[in-house]
Amino acid sequence: MISRLLFIFFALVVTNSMSMMVQKTYIVHMDRTKIRASIHSQDITKPWFESVIDSISESSTQEEQEQEILPPRLLYVYETNMFGFAVCLSQKQLESLSKVDGFLSALPDELLTLHTTHTPNFLGLKNGIGLWSAQNLASDVIIGIIDSGIWPEHISFKDSGLSSVPSHWKGICEQGTKFSASNCNKKLIGARTYLKGYEKSVGKINDTADYRSPRDSIGHGTHTASTAAGSLVKNASFYGLASGSASGMRKTSRIAAYKACWPAGCVNSDILAAMDQAVSDGVDVLSLSLGGFPKPYYGDSIAIASFGAAKNGVFVSCSAGNYGPHPSTVGNSAPWIMTVAASYTDRTFPTKVRLGRGEVFRGSSLYHGRKTSQLPLVYAKSAGANKEAQYCTENSLDQNLVKGKIVACEKGLNSRTEKGMVVQKAGGAGMILLNSESQGGELLADPHILPATSLGASESSIVRNYIRTSKNTPTASISFLGTKYGEPAPAMAAFSSRGPNYFGLDVIKPDVTAPGVNILAAWPAKVSPSLLKSDKRSVMFNIISGTSMSCPHVSGIAALIKSVHKDWSPAAIKSALMTTAYILNNKGDPIRDAGSNNSASATPFAFGSGHVNPESASDPGLVYDINTQDYLNYLCSLNYTDSEIALVSRENFVCPKNSVLQAGDLNYPSFSVLFDRVGQNSSVTYKRVVTNVAKSQSANYVVNVEQPRGVSATVEPRKLKFEKMGQKLSYSVTFSSIGKRLRDAGSNSFGSLTWVSGKYYKVRSPIAVTWQ
């Protein structure tokens, strides 16, 4: 009785404090058995929750419509542990909902337990446990972010509860345009700017718009910094989407921001200077969400600077690139770099597209306004003033042909949000972004300024055909379904760059994949979420996608591992992350590839060793360590000249004269095997050395090999017995091409080699075989 009175009192307080015009978020409980069929009998394809929400909207009064009260905004749908949904409602809308058959209760939303922006939770990081235990988070680790700068006032960079700046830190906080030393604190402990190369190449920086200082005018650097090491922020969201508590992977790490990127890009000379200074300043981890096309390591500035960083004990994490799903596009592929691909989490921002003839498709968008009515649909290519009209570029659309219509635009040439601006300027009422065949089922959510959504390749093909063949005026509508969890994940993003590693075929790249699609993180207050100058919205958090987003996840996780294992080399940390990665999704199926229309299983050329698993990486059992001499011998095996090697090593090094070096002997945690396609029964033997780092110290391992198709892999010895921590044991693997079939050049097969100890340790290495 007392608890019931307290509940009534609380409900009255909340109700009286609410404005009739202001929306609040409610957790709505419904009785599945009592929802009237008549609510959605007119449209059997419509989900029950949409029917309920629509019934609320339809019951709005004329007064409410005149006052332009926002429609109910669906955030989540619950159909497993409970039956209901989370929704933003005004007081009047709540009263309407209470009259719907099956309504049980609506409780004001409340933060009960830690519920992050989802990627830490998706990665298995839990507050107070394991890598996120107080003891581990207390140690000092500095992450250097080389990017577009930082917005220092953001709440993600507050230093509450942090101890003094680490004693080994030697960096400074540079002053500049709208940035002073006071902008740094115990969280953001350093900030520098690098622009000389950029100004030489591009021209003088606009000091008013772009800040000749570490201040971020793009948003990219702020987003990546907070993803790696942002402090815990409660009640974060993007207009109610993805709501929860935002946090970086290692939320107590210190951040050093090095601004080397500007609106037109990043110049190698500036990047080299920034990396060099960062290592000198004392960073423990370097995170670079930037890069270009593949190139030989001796001609790759990032590879060269990363070699020096690794030599000094600094872990370097880089984005793989956004040129997928085309093969051999992976960048930042030097073996001493952790190369990170991008994948989806189980969180989506779904939309529904309904065509006039009845088909209903699922899309994705961050638009947060009203759904559209059924409107005329036009293909941009046939509604334009020039050849670029199909891409909805600036001034390409004919206003007379698009006014009041939904415009179907092809992706490419300009940004996806800019296409929406072009459509809006031409009088369009909405936009559908069409995928090409190469973009497959990719569904990226963008912060559009008008009702807009993306569609996958197969759905896009149907839309094009519908517009072209419809005898009546083609029509479409777009509705927005909020935030949804539970999708099969991870899944590889189509845009994520792929292997094989063009200039280092003997090393599988990328190394791992991590969350990189629709990631919510900190955003500068004066940068619009769409990056459009005409967009006057201001947000604290934005949702964007790219391998730029997956890279800082791994940077932060590496900092977590370094906290536990302070004496580990960068190669050992990398090995731990790779050999504990997983290749099955949350449904127990192989990780799928959004770059294919049929969502085929992804391969190591898409995800490397698999999806990172932080807690397992903290105790991997065995590691494959690599030292500077090993890397230099590897460069010798690539037939680099002494001068080319010197470019990388910055020292004179002479390749061994009397030993046979093969690239496949680099002590890498994966195997890339090359065979001549016309050869028969070819074979090659690679050697590896593993180091025991298990907590139990003594351990016995047995090898398990998943044989690649067309190849026999034989391991010797098949058992390893370790008696103490730090003990090293070696083994060899002989790969033999079997069968007489003439294989196509570039054909591949895949397998794995796993050292197993009991039920706990499974040290897995992928195998990729290529016939040249």
Class based on secondary structure composition and strand pairing: alpha/beta
Helix content: 10-25%
Average pLDDT figure: 86
Name the beta content range. Answer: 25-35%
Distance between the termini: 77 Å
Low-confidence stretches: 1-19, 109-117
Total of helices? 20
Rg for CA atoms: 27 Å
- Total strand segments: 35
Structural notes for this entry:
- This protein starts with a helix and ends with a strand.
- It has 20 helices and 35 strands.
- By secondary structure, it is an alpha/beta fold.
- The strands form eight sheets. Strands 5, 6, 9, 12, 13, 14, 22, 23 and 26 form a nine-stranded mixed β-sheet that branches. Strands 16-15-21-17-18-19-20 form a seven-stranded mixed β-sheet, with helices on both faces. Strands 28-35-34-30-32 form a five-stranded mixed β-sheet, with no helix packed on it.
- Strand 18, helix 13 (416-425) and strand 19 form a beta-alpha-beta unit.
Outline of this structure?
By secondary structure, the chain is of the alpha/beta class.
List the helices and strands and how they pair.
Layout (H helix, E strand, L loop, with lengths): L1 H16 L6 E7 L17 H11 L3 H5 L6 E6 L5 E6 L1 H7 L5 E6 L10 H4 L11 H5 L3 E6 L40 E6 L2 H6 L5 H4 L9 H10 L3 E6 L2 E6 L7 E6 L1 E2 L2 E2 L1 H14 L3 E4 L12 H11 L3 E5 L18 E7 L5 E6 L4 E5 L10 E5 L19 H4 L3 E5 L5 H10 L4 E5 L17 E4 L1 H13 L5 E6 L10 E2 L19 E4 L3 E4 L18 E4 L2 H18 L5 H10 L12 E2 L10 H4 L6 H4 L4 E2 L4 H10 L4 H8 L21 E5 L7 E10 L6 E8 L4 E6 L2 E4 L5 E10 L9 E11 L3 E11 L1
Parallel strand pairs: 5-9, 5-12, 6-9, 12-13, 13-14, 14-23, 17-18, 18-19, 19-20, 22-26, 28-35
Antiparallel strand pairs: 1-3, 1-4, 2-3, 7-8, 10-11, 14-22, 15-16, 15-21, 17-21, 24-25, 27-29, 29-33, 30-32, 30-34, 31-33, 34-35
Helix pairs in contact: 2-4, 9-15, 10-11
